Amino acid sequence: MDGDSLYREAFQIKGDDFERGGEVATQVKGLLQQLGLPRDVIRRLSIANFEAEMNVVMYAREATLEVLVFPDLIRVQVVDRGPGIADIDWAMQEGHSTATEAMRARGFGAGLGLPNIQRNADEFKVTSEVGVGTTLRYAVYTTPHPREG
């Protein structure tokens, strides 16, 4: 991700680490609070970041979540190394999930992760290559701005 950001930080996420799942989202929330960003922006990003992080924990080997804070928006990019998504359109439909029974037993796998990220972001894009991994890019504006699809 490029541009002249006011703040930039990258976090590592390990796959299959359910015990620490959510820690990166919590760290980013604290960072955004320290920067004095609006509560609604922090709430929306926290939901999106948690969903993205748990998708990595459940499906990928590892990922980097990068946060860039600009004067008018916060951009997040999550690049994972994992199986990739064969059918993004299918994965974007609420309720569609490839979660295992073990994941469901932990309370995950309702098929809401990617749709929740999109719903809470002003900008959202997912790209994926099967056998390589998935990249999520999303942003939330800190000032009033028209939402993009």
What does this structure look like?
The chain is α+β, with helices and mostly antiparallel strands and 149 residues long. It has a single domain (7-141), classed as Heat Shock Protein 90 (2-Layer Sandwich). It has helices spanning 23-34, 39-59, 88-91, 101-105, 113-120; strands at residues 7-14, 62-69, 73-81, 123-129, 133-141. It has a 5-stranded antiparallel sheet, with helices on one face. Strand 4 and strand 5 (133-141) form a beta hairpin. Helix 1 runs antiparallel to helix 2 (39-59) and helix 2 runs antiparallel to helix 5 (113-120). The longest helix has 21 residues, at 39-59. The protein is globular and about 40 Å long. It starts with 6 loop residues before the first strand and ends in an 8-residue tail after the last strand.
Main features:
alpha+beta; Heat Shock Protein 90; 149 residues
Task: Give a short overview.
Helix content is 34%, strand content 28%. With 149 residues, it is an alpha+beta fold. It has a single domain, classed as Histidine kinase-like ATPase, C-terminal domain (Heat Shock Protein 90).
Topology:
Elements: E1 7-14, H1 23-34, H2 39-59, E2 62-69, E3 73-81, H3 88-91, H4 101-105, H5 113-120, E4 123-129, E5 133-141
Antiparallel strand pairs: 1-2, 2-3, 3-5, 4-5
Helix pairs in contact: 1-2, 2-5
Net shape? globular
Radius of gyration, rounded?
Answer: 15 Å
Which strand order does the major sheet show? 1-2-3-5-4
The chain-level mean pLDDT equals 89
In CATH, what is the class? Answer: Alpha Beta
Number of strands: 5
| Structure classification | alpha+beta
Give me the strand/helix succession. Answer: EHHEEHHHEE
Low-confidence stretches: none
The figure for the number of domains is 1
- Tally of helical runs: 5
